Amino acid sequence: MVNRLIIAAAGSGKTTYLVRQAMQQSDSVLITTYTIANELEIRKKIVELNGFVPHNVTIQTWYSFLLQHGVRPFQGVVLDDKINGMILVNEKSGKKYDGKYGPVYFAEDDYRKFYFTDGMKMYSDKIAKFVCRCEKETKGRVSQRISRIYPKIYVDEIQDLAGYDLDIIKSLLQAECDVTMVGDPRQVTYHTHNEAKYKKYANGKIEEFIKTECKKPGCIIDKETLNDSYRNNQSICSYSSQLYEEYGETGTKQFAVTGHDGVFLVRPDDVDAYLEEFKPMQLREKRTVKVNDRYAVINMGEAKGLTYDRVLIYPTGTMRSWMKDHSKTLQPKTKSQFYVAITRARYSVGIVFDYDEKISIEGVEKYQ
To answer: Domain 4-80+122-222 carries which CATH code?
Structure first.
């Protein structure tokens, strides 16, 4: 078995690579990813390249995969009740009551209240933990069964997995199957759940998890295969790379010249003229940020996976501080948002910044 973690830069053709690899296999293949949107994108790419989804390729969201292959075949080792699907939750589930010092939750011993709603729908943040419990109770039969069904497993957007999901990954790496994980730790915009387990590997530290917790089965760390962007020009790649220097500089396969290429500071007084001249997509942190409503706008957190010819970013105060002095610390979420925003553009990135003539920022020009 060969296990591999591929660190993919923004715009590097991750989905295309993953799909091409999967379609080369004669064995049964599983491709799993966190969001429904990513599942649909993978399915769309396979049809685009192949005309149809091959019979040996299964595409599932992570939750759907866990329910079908982790929960349903083995639920009898934990309970006799019928499970009626899943309910998505955005916060910790299984609340018993609101206590004096905060919410009090049901203990795992009361499994009906801990794992399920009154209608026996499993809380999404408990699915991975339930599967891990089944894996433990059956002495590894969950991962063994999955490896027999799918000798080749591809996990997309690996950076979105957290907590007990990582224990499932660890079990699969030890099973008799080849596991390829692909993702960009710089683009952590979701998490399957907010479990305290493996908290130290949150915020994109999947490489550290693999190196520290998964030594026994072994896993190749590949930072080269998907390190060139087909979306961003080199100026954009170079500037975005400054946010995550530990991953080195991203290269480019996009060499178009338009006459306005690279990263630019745009004074607030010049924003309207810039928008009129270049028609960029405006990117902001949240709806309360003032923009020009006559032009298209989207929140940074909603822009992941999207591509525009040009963008205009309204940075937060901490983003501006980092731009002036890279020793200033950006919170992981803010850093990821800024990286995602910068790497949406093919040709030019404008950043609203009230600069004076003395200021000089490496890799950034001034719009005059």
So the answer is: 3.40.50.300
Residue 31, token pair as written in the block: 């491709």
> Residue 38 in 3-state DSSP?
helix
Instruction: Give the DSSP per-residue string, 51-85.
Output: SS--TTEEEEEHHHHHIIIIITTTGGGT--SPP--
pLDDT greater than 90 at residue 194 = no
Q: What is the pLDDT of residue 192?
A: 61
Cα–Cα distance, 258 to 278 (Å, whole number): 11
Question: Is the confidence at residue 349, as pLDDT, over 70?
Answer: yes
Q: Which helix (H) or strand (E) holds 6?
A: strand 4-7
3-state secondary structure of 364: coil
State residue 195's pLDDT score. Answer: 65
Contact by Cβ (8 Å): 131, 71: yes
What kind of fold does domain 228-366 have according to CATH? Rossmann fold (3.40.50)
Please tell me the pTM assigned to this model. 0.91
Cα gap 263→283, rounded to integer Å: 14
Tokens coding 178 = 């080849």
The mean pLDDT of 173-200, rounded to a whole number, is 86
Q: DSSP class of residue 280?
A: P
What mean pLDDT, rounded, does the chain reach? 94
Q: Give the pLDDT band of residue 323 (cuts 50, 70, 90).
A: very high
Matching fold, domains 4-80+122-222 and 228-366: yes
Distance CA 139, CA 286 (A): 47
